[in-house]
Structure formats: structure tokens, C-alpha cells
């Protein structure tokens, strides 16, 4: 560690700190508030596959990284057990898989907006009932909205993510350093190592 610290100091201490704050584009509100966004687009795929993707544009969520509200919602949307959307659609033989969430990339989460998407892989029969599948997805999201957050579920997710963090496999050092450098732009200093993985605070209003 002493040697590594010496190398880092020698190589990086010459880079000047200009003292400027991190760029923010929060003033560019509602970039998707256009007629083109509020539409259904049909795309002919190259492969023989049927997929339904529903995308919502939300206010920026990166400030809530300690709560991770989108992770909580994606956990419920992507649940595959009894009472889930996918379980219901599979019983009707309309869907094979379902995924919901935010990719946490610069395009999907930034200081202007956050994207939340639900993607359903449809069967041939599901494609014939395309609108009904979309309606069921919206019904499920509406139900979650009306029920509100559940602390027991949030704490369950928190424990699972903590276990995965503590028992994760060792990653490539170069990839890990690159990930930490990115985290330094997004999180408070004490959360550089954990901010992208752990849930810290339960705030139902968020």
C-alpha cells in the first residue's frame, strides 16, 4: 500500500485542481416533454423476437442514492413469484421474461432526468394481446402507487444487497478503480465504496 500510495502521489499530484464545482444541467428540465415521446413506436426486429418496452422520464434521482427508490420499484416489478406481473402473464402464456429498472448510466441517470423502463419479452400469443399486456403492466404500477412503500420489503432488499456486497467475487483491479473514480463524481466521500450498491436510508416519501 505504501508503494501504491507513492505511485499515485507522484503521478496524479501534478494534475491541477481548478476548484470548479461538478457540472450540473438541472436547469434543462423535462427534455422528454415532446409529442414524440408520448407515442407508441413499432420497430421491426432483425431477430424473431417480440418485446414491449415502456419508458418513463422522471425527475433526477441520483441525489437519492442512499434510498434508491428506483431500485425498490424495479425489485417489485421484476419479481417473478406468486402475485407478480410476470407470473400472471406467464399463466396466460403471453410473456417469457420481464425486467424493470434504471441502467444507472449517464444516459439513464443524470442531473437533468432519470429513466425508468419496463421491458417484457412476449410470446407470439402475447404479441397478439399487445395492448392487454401493456394495460396489465400499468395496472400493476398503479397498484404499487396506491399501496405505497413497504418498509419490510425495503429492508429485505437492503439485507440482500448487503450480503451480495460483502461476499462478492474479486473483480479486475482496473475495472474496480474505474468504477471508484466514477463513484467519486456521484457520491459523498464516505460512500465511494458502497454508494452504488447498498441501501442506507428508508424514506417512504421519496
Account of the protein in words:
The chain has 7 helices and 3 strands. It has a 3-stranded antiparallel beta sheet with strand order 1-3-2. The chain is 37% helix and 12% strand. It is globular, with a radius of gyration of 21 Å. It is α+β, with helices and mostly antiparallel strands. The longest helix has 18 residues, at 130-147.
Descriptors:
single chain, 206 residues, alpha+beta, three-stranded antiparallel beta sheet, 7 helices, 3 strands, globular, metal ion binding, zinc, Peptidase_M16_M, metallopeptidase activity
Rounded mean pLDDT score: 94
The strand order across the widest sheet is 1-3-2
Segments where pLDDT lies below 50 for 5+ residues? none
* Overall helicity: 25-40%
Largest sheet: 3 strands, antiparallel
Count the E strands: 3
Count, helices: 7
Determine the structural class based on helices, strands and strand pairing: alpha+beta
Rg over alpha carbons: 21 Å
In what range is the share of β-strand residues?
Answer: 5-15%
Q: Give the termini separation.
A: 40 Å
| Order of secondary-structure elements | HEHHEEHHHH
The coarse overall form would be globular
Amino acid at each position: 500500500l505504501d508503494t501504491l500510495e507513492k505511485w499515485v502521489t507522484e503521478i496524479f499530484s501534478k494534475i491541477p485542481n481548478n476548484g470548479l464545482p461538478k457540472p450540473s444541467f438541472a436547469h434543462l428540465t423535462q427534455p422528454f416533454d415532446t409529442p414524440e415521446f408520448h407515442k407508441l413506436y413499432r420497430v421491426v426486429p432483425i431477430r424473431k423476437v417480440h418485446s414491449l418496452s415502456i419508458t418513463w422520464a422522471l425527475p433526477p434521482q441520483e441525489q437519492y442514492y442512499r434510498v434508491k427508490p428506483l431500485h425498490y420499484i424495479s425489485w417489485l416489478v421484476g419479481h417473478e413469484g406468486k402475485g407478480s406481473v410476470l407470473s400472471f402473464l406467464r399463466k396466460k402464456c403471453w410473456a417469457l421474461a420481464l425486467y424493470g429498472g434504471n441502467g444507472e448510466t449517464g444516459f439513464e441517470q443524470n442531473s437533468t432526468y432519470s429513466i425508468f423502463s419496463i421491458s417484457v419479452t412476449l410470446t407470439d400469443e402475447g404479441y397478439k394481446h399487445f395492448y392487454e399486456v401493456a394495460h396489465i403492466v400499468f395496472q400493476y404500477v398503479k397498484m404499487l402507487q396506491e399501496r405505497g412503500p413497504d418498509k419490510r420489503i425495503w429492508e429485505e432488499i437492503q439485507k440482500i444487497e448487503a450480503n451480495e456486497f460483502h461476499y462478492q467475487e474479486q473483480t479486475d483491479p482496473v475495472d474496480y478503480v474505474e468504477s471508484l473514480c466514477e463513484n467519486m463524481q456521484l457520491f459523498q466521500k464516505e460512500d465511494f465504496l458502497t454508494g452504488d450498491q447498498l441501501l442506507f436510508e428508508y424514506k417512504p416519501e421519496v
